[in-house]
Amino acid sequence: MAESAVLSRHLRVLWGIPGAELAVVGWPATRRERVFATWDYWWQAHLLDCAIDAANREATPVRTRHIAAIAHGIRVRNITGWTNDYYDDMAWLALALERADRTRGAAELRGGLTALEKEIVEGWEPQAGAMPWRKGADYFNAPANGPVGILLVRLGRHARAREIADWLHRTLRDPETGLILDGIHLPSGELEQPIFTYCQGTVLGLETELAVHTGEFEHVERVQQLLRAVEEQLTTDSIVTGGGGGDGGLFNGILARYLALVAVALPGEGAAQVAARRTAARIVTRSARAAWDHRLEVEGEPLFGHDWSRPARMPTGTFGAGYVGAGGSVVASRSPERDLSVQLSGWLLMEAAHLVTAAGF
């Protein structure tokens, strides 16, 4: 139902081009949004990832077509190719294309993945030991380095992924809370202190992938430490707390995706590893139950709230979702529930809950 709601309200043919689809960034949509004058590259990457989730859950010809059409829509709307100037954006899309190839056999998307991989590998800053947020920036953050690291593990570039994981742990882990800070300006060393849920999620994902692919136990230990901090400080009764719209609408869903990865993939049969997997699964399933219980039903389909612990509200007005604020992030609509990011987060959470439930949690 989460899948159906996003597709029916948001998915459209791009500019009348057969075989090219994108999602409008707001519902109800403005004319500007309907013609894709604004489209938010990284939101569409997560739409593609969710479409892959659905096909992996139950493959159908329609779902297979959606994967190809959304990928084609991203390529067409981006005008200049698969890439842009933001390493976090490119990493999200590369992760989706890699999964489409690996899990769905979408070999036709390998050209896009190759182009993105080249940009990301060449963007490495050896003096900093990390990836900048965007080309030419002095800001090195978790939202870029986390997904880049996950991608590099999945592409077999384990040594560079390990460097990134070590840098994140050494540089952005807050010693007081145990949580991952947003980023640091280099060479000045000025830290940006905000705590975002998706920073925790991508680092959990990176350390879990490294634990699986390298067998190095320190990555398991880091997952256990960070997971404890997340449970203690970012959940209430194992429900992820807070949430917003705009770009922030995707943050909690990304955390849920990688909590599910911890639940089904973290190695080890010791008591601590078993407990960590159960904790990750519990946060996912309880958050999903809360989000479902607090949904609105609109024409028989769910509309999720931006805060899963509170009742969703019917969108009023059309301001937001496509307007970029001073810091470069897309601002929330006055009613965050109208933002594609918020509804994608709900869909992503439901897919994560299906994954851990199917695994026996």
What attributes characterize this protein structure?
single chain; 361 residues; mainly alpha; three-stranded antiparallel beta sheet; two-stranded antiparallel sheet; 13 helices; 9 strands; globular
Provide structural commentary.
- With 361 residues, the protein is mainly α.
- It is built from 13 helices and nine strands.
- It has helices at 2-10, 31-34, 41-57, 61-77, 87-104, 110-122, 142-154, 158-171, 197-214, 217-234, 251-265, 271-293, 340-358, and strands at residues 11-13, 21-23, 139-141, 181-185, 190-195, 235-236, 239-240, 296-298, 301-303.
- The strands form four sheets. A three-stranded antiparallel beta sheet has the order 3-4-5. It has a two-stranded antiparallel sheet with strand order 1-2.
- A hairpin with a 4-residue loop joins β4 and β5.
- The longest helix has 23 residues, at 271-293.
- It is globular and about 50 Å long.
- The two termini are 21 Å apart.
